[in-house]
Amino acid sequence: MAKTVFKNILQILIILIFNNFLAQKTPEKLPKNVVNDTISKKDTIVVKKESLDDILRTKAEDQRRDIPKKMTFLNKNAQVIYQDMQIDADYISIDDNKNLIYARGKQDSLGKIVEPVITMQGGKKYETNEFSYNTKTKQAIAYNARTEESEGVIIAQKTKKYNDSVFAMKRADYTTDDYFIKKKDTAADYFMRASNIKLIKTKNKSQIVTGPIQMYIERVPTPLIMPFAILPFSDKRAAGILIPSFGEREDVGFFLNGIGYYQPIGEHFDLKVLADVYTKGSWNLRPQMNYQKKYKYSGSFNADIGTMVRGIKGLDDYNKNSTYRINWTHSQDAKSNPFLTFSASVDIVSTKFYNNPLNNNYIFNQNVLNTQQNSTVTLTKRFLKLPVTITGTASYSQNFATGLADLRLPQMNVAINQFYLFKSKTGVRQGLLENITVNTGFNLTNFVNTQENELFTKAMWDKMQTGLKNNIALATNTTLAKYFTFSLSANIDNALTTKSLNRYYDPIKNVTVDEINKNFAGYSTFSTTASLQTTLYGMLKFKKGSSVEAIRHMMTPSIGFTYSPDFSSPNFGYYKNYYNATGAITPYSIFEKGIVGSPSSGMVGALGFNVGNNIEMKVKSKKDSTGVKKLKIFESLNLSGNYNFAAKDHPWSIFSINGQSSFFNSKLTVNTSLTLDPYRIAFIPGQDTGIRTEEFGHFSVQGFNIQLSYPLSSEIFGEKTDYAKKYSSRGEVRNENYYFDDDNYAHFDQAWTLNVNANYAYSKGLNRFGSKIASIGLDGSIKLTPYWNINGSTHYDMVTKELAYTRIGFSRDQRSFTINFNWVPFGQYKVYDFFIGIKANILSDALKYKDRSFTQPNAPF
């Protein structure tokens, strides 16, 4: 047997050696065509591509594998991780044949989903009831999917994911309600519903594109429907539709105010185009452009162009007017160029623009009360080594009452910085000479006062006046006897103009004619003043234990003497005479009505006085830590007047008394003024205008004015309650701002403000009967609840017994949006305006509730 085994082993070794020899033998070469034929007839082995591009990781409390059907089932706390996607669900099935992952949320006994499927991919979280994902095509379908994007959330009945960038949704709701997003509330306070939505994602931003979209408030559909919407999810500026307010005005009908579109233009510009549309035919177009270059400049351009239609066509009350307003503002950053600055504030309107406002904001902001509009463009040049500042200005002023316009173009001022005339010998300036300061400069002006329709016509250029004026002011001061300040000053004015006046009486037409001569004329004037001032203190103390401890009185008396010659003297040639209608010789200045003003007439040698007073009182106070409280009786009480020694008649001037005080912890502010004429005014029977006599000592009231202002608030009348410490129970969800006592009554901070303004003015002059103006104004707000606010303003004229401009506003905070209502109930413009605005910043460009552009501090740039 051993021989047989050995024999078999030997045979096996011989076979192995022989096979190894055959394997090492070089095969014979075959013809080329034979080789190709052999290769083509061989079976090529193709490795089948795996259905998964990555490892698929699974886990669950219960896992089951159906090998014949190539299915995997995961139950309870199931999880699948594949590439950058993680799926967490109550039930997950994996079909290897169809490359399909299916997930379903947890169900209750009735089959209702009580816990959703959570899918995380690319840092985004998605919640769905059911979810299917194809690992091969990368496409997915989800039902009742909750997709969070930036500040909002989308809930769609069906969502299909085509790829990582495009999602299609059917019957989807979008909201930015923070409570709903954080699941503090099961219902959103508002949402926008669209039948179809496409969500497009890119690396830097995402956006929603929808067809018709409708707003729902508290699940109630509203008439706010848009044919389409594009909602961007980006921190950068983005284009969007501007949502209007709507309401009714008595004169022009129902309206949409502020409907339009917002479009950013490049890095430094953005554009808004707004429109106001009224049912009676009026319309208004309002383009608005903002621009900004950081650390350089910023500005805006606004325009209002429209047509106002009032009444019914064919009837007498029908009228149609075109209106316009052009506004441009520009400001330069001081850091960009401190030696050359440019600024502009241009506001040009048609004469009747504010009488025909098509933008209701002008009514609510009381711009309709404007009687004048001013525009200015300024260029300022400074020098590093020269003490000179050159300012070029162009200005335009409109007076809507007279229809006249003042144009100054151009106007140039050259100012030399103040300097000392003499140097100090010791480094500390002492005495009158070392303290002499000099201020001087030149002012060149081209001025015209003309009608609006004459602007830049030949009539305007004929009226244009050119004037050059130079002022030199010298001043100095020193201390006398330690307690007195002695001051000296002198003013020299030099003027040159291109036009002068020639006045005469035309007996044929019975009018006084002012003839303008186009020739150069000029004048020089000077005046000097010496004054002495000191400060006196007085204290009146009371007995210990009294409620008033002391009264302190500070008095600042000053006297000054002013001298200037009589520039109406024939020696100067600044004044001429003409015979008036009665034949009397009447003097007039040849510079009257001119741009450089007229020299003063009559010699002035006046001794003026001013007495300033400040009176305070110290009273006991338990609330103050020192036990003493200061009360200001008069913050200031000034009496001023003068006596002109050179005057031929009425040497005493009218006396003026001005006072200012505040009470109730400086809350109530009182400003008063009183003017007294020391001479008796005589009236001729049957005439209402009197004559000022030379009888001194009557001191009749010529004018009196008092203004009171008192801001009231809830904080003044009580301390703020800490409801969190006082009440243990607090509301939830929408009622979290309420605190409840043991009887379940709600408590909250009911803040309110009320500003009271009162004004009384009496003016008499030389009239027998004076005129009065008296009014009371109220401006305030009150929070009825933490979410309801009422605000308004009104003025009552106590002379006419009528209410003047009155506005009432209501606002409602609905967490995610606000509802605003403004109403002017009576007056020339009866209007109400209603607006709903979404708070979320993500929608402030798409559905523009706030003007979020780069002109705001927190906007990116």
UniProtKB/TrEMBL annotation:
Residues 208-679 form the LPS-assembly protein LptD central domain. InterPro entries: LptD (IPR050218), LptD_2 (IPR045659). Signal peptide: none annotated. This is LPS-assembly protein LptD. It comes from Chryseobacterium rhizosphaerae.
